[in-house]
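Researcher: If convenient, please comment on what follows.
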Amino acid sequence: MRLIDADALLKDGITAEYGFGDDGLLLIPMRDVINSIKIAPTVDAVPVVRCKDCKYYRYGKHFTDIKFCQRLPYYAAEGGLNTADDDFCSYGERKEGADNS
């Protein structure tokens, strides 16, 4: 998979031969759209592990609605850092059986 810079694609436009249909709609050949996507610049991105898929993500022992991260050592005395399911950090490590999406 390649992540493209959609803003750059919109700024530079789709290089295409185009015309208008009988109803006045703009028609662009699919081959030109595909070629424009192929040459679009990529973005600098890395995959992240969301807290819900991380092996350090825990539920509180006394309060079942508290979720926290046990990875950060300076929060260990307080039981960890409170997090949400969709949070992520640079310490994330995927747990076995976690969804890869």
User: Anything to note?
Assistant: The two ends are 13 Å apart (CA to CA).
